[in-house]
Amino acid sequence: MLDRSSQPSSPYIPVDALSEVLQDFRLSGVNYSRCELRHPWSIAFPQQQLLRFHFVSQGPCWIHTAALGWQELRDGDLVLLPQGVAHKLASAPDVADDSLDRCQVTKLGTNVCEVVREGTGATSTLFCGSMALGVCALNPLITLMPPIIKGCDVAGNDPIVGPLLAAMTAEATHPQMGSATILSRMADLLTARLIRCWVNCTGAPTIGWLAAIRDPNIGRALAAMHRDPGHNWNLERLAAVAGQSRSIFAERFSAVLGEGAAHYLARLRMQLARELLGQSGTSVADVATRLGYESEASFARAFKRITGVSPGVVRRTISGRTDMDFGFQDT
After folding, report:
1. Where are the beta strands (DSSP E) in 49-192?
2. Which residue among 62, 73, 194, 325 has its CA within the 20 to 30 Å range from the CA of 207?
């Protein structure tokens, strides 16, 4: 049985499940840096639980990942690292030392900084960012994406990507008052379109989350759970959203996702609970109520059963913490 809730039994039923989930795309905890680096330079970026991107206004610039080795980035290129894998940027592959200790880092605001390395070599102008997804609905999608996506590789599949990259190049090349804000808004939009473009261009799998969200029946139920995870869901209500009988829905859901709907919903709620527990001023009781649990105790038991720790421990560990590390790592 799924957990009971006091909320009314009138769930929103999505028409297009994939669009329903993608429209929830929003970014939070976003940090940006504008970098002007003179060759030779090299900066290491550690693994992090944030999505990263780098936009090259002017090179030279190379990127290295464990999976793909060194790749050259040209002027106007943008790379997206959905899972925040460890990587390195450099003016050339043979620059081995980390240059951050010789850079001047100046904070321009709460979430924007400027990184400058003086010298006599060619100047590279980069716009880098770290961001957290503001909703756990996209977490399963992000885990399916490749470790690195180049904007130029998908520009041909989205007529807006090319002009957006050109606009970012113009703004970064000739910065004016408010350029940091404008560039950050462009980056948000570009990131969202790159993710959508990857989804649209990916082949149709037969099992897994992407197959489920594309399924005309299962996808509606999946999107409804993501839209309102605290609703009083049970198999009958989810099957009704999917337009299937209870038995057919349960069998199909398990076959495509490899787990039952109740287990999937419980994990989804705990993912969201972790996000909510990290928000300042949000109590465990508040989270329990929002996620449809009848009591704080029942929520706490479910949370510890699934995550292995109590919600109180998580709240004390991450509550009120803001990640203002721009991602640079000294070596």
Report:
1. 51-58, 61-65, 69-73, 78-81, 87-90, 104-107, 112-117, 123-133, 149-150
2. 194
